[in-house]
Design brief:
Distance between the termini: 142 Å
Strand content: 35-45%
Number of helices: 0
Shape: rod-shaped
Number of strands: 30
Largest sheet: 5 strands, mixed
Radius of gyration: 40 Å
Mean pLDDT: 90
Strand order of the largest sheet: 10-17-16-12-13
Order of helices and strands: EEEEEEEEEEEEEEEEEEEEEEEEEEEEEE
């Protein structure tokens, strides 16, 4: 038996040299550049699969996105791309391949998810009202199916910027967070310029001689002290009480009694000692 070896022209292969070699195509098996997502065709041109484009079918066609070049929602722009850390700014997010027939839009700022609405003027724009968040830069994503899937952009960032009230914060007494001043004790107030003072009891005498069985009443006065003030009986005979600085004791019993009253607020406290001599 004689073996016949066929030597095909460049670009052709097979027993009859009737099919094209890889990276060759068309009726003349013309050379092609490697086709990433397509086939080599007439004239050596790449004919791309659906969703792909380019001379070698290596990138996504218009309106197709992601690693697999799918016709999915994709953020085109975010305006503005920054807002107050206290939130409340209207953010316009332009989205390609959006389904205007749905009302299930969600906006995700980092890990914070809020509802979004379609812009009736431009039906490819989703309106998001920025939430309150600490100063940071986060990824902004959009869902058109109530959270089942999200846009996969990796560069659509939104920045929350610290914005103080018009009075601004006294930077030595506090700092700005979520559009308001956060004061460092002992400072307080909308601009952190109010100095809080610990309570101090005015000394109007600490020894009292009274008749046994009588009624004792003594209004303690503060020489200073910022609210909120709390009064506490630390040590006293049974029945002695203090309310808003008024010390009272019904049916006092005989003996010399030591009474300790504490007054305090968020800054500090004062302790006063009273001696009640019931005769």
């Amino acid at each position: 038996t004689m073996q016949v070896i066929v030597d095909c022209k460049t670009g052709f292969q097979g027993e009859n040299c009737s099919i094209c070699e890889p990276n060759y195509g068309g009726s003349n098996c013309d050379p092609c550049v490697p086709c990433d997502q397509g086939v080599c065709g007439e004239g050596g041109l790449c004919f791309c699969n659906n969703g792909y484009n380019g001379s070698s079918c290596s990138y996504c066609a218009t309106h197709y996105y992601g690693p697999n070049c799918l016709e999915i929602p994709h953020i085109l722009s975010v305006h503005p791309s920054s807002g107050k850390d206290g939130g409340g700014d209207v953010i316009r997010v332009s989205v390609d391949n959006i389904d205007v027939g749905t009302d299930e839009f969600l906006c995700r700022f980092g890990s914070i998810i809020i509802s979004g609405t379609i812009d009736i003027v431009s039906n490819h724009t989703v309106l998001c009202v920025s939430p309150s968040s600490s100063a940071s830069t986060v990824l902004l994503s959009i869902s058109t199916d109530n959270g089942a899937s999200w846009t996969i952009n990796s560069d659509t960032e939104f920045t929350f910027t610290p914005t103080c009230p018009s009075t601004a914060c006294n930077q030595t007494n506090g700092y700005c967070s979520l559009s308001q001043c956060v004061c460092i004790l002992p400072w307080s107030g909308p601009d952190c310029e109010t100095l809080l003072l610990k309570p101090v009891v005015q000394n109007n005498g600490t020894y009292f001689a009274l008749d046994e069985g009588g009624f004792y009443s003594n209004q303690l006065i503060l020489s200073q002290g910022s609210s909120h003030i709390e009064w506490l009986v630390v040590q006293a005979p049974d029945g002695l009480e203090v309310h808003d600085g008024l010390v009272s004791w019904m049916n006092a019993v005989a003996g010399v009694h030591t009474v300790l009253i504490q007054v305090s607020n968020i800054i500090g406290s004062d302790l006063i000692t009273l001696t009640l001599d019931m005769q």
